[in-house]
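Sat 14:20. Reprocessing the chain from the morning session after the first attempt stalled halfway. Input below, unchanged.
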Amino acid sequence: QVQLVESGGGLVQAGGSLRLSCVASGRTVSSDTMAWFRQAPGKEREFVGSIRASGASTVAADSVKGRFSISRDNAKNTVYLQMNSLKPEDTAVYSCAGSFGTSRYTYWGQGTQVTVSS
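Finished this time. Tokens:
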């Protein structure tokens, strides 16, 4: 059983940066594909991007390409989401998730709130 805990969220002004962390416990997730999602109030959950065990990452959401990046530190069992040039529309709860041996993400964190003020 893997537990994920996100941190690093908060209130930031537009144009600022935040780095979110997702720490896994229970077992190593170095062989897992990890992902970040976000959900804004009144909107459906949006897939932000993912990172494979190899370290190859993909930022899928067009709205954040060029501004967000995903990385991982397997020694720390941690995945990161670096967010730059933040905009008010990036305000959301950001959650990480993981999968192993399946295309579905089977374990999730509780999420961390990011609020971007204009």
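The first strand starts at residue 3 and ends at 7.
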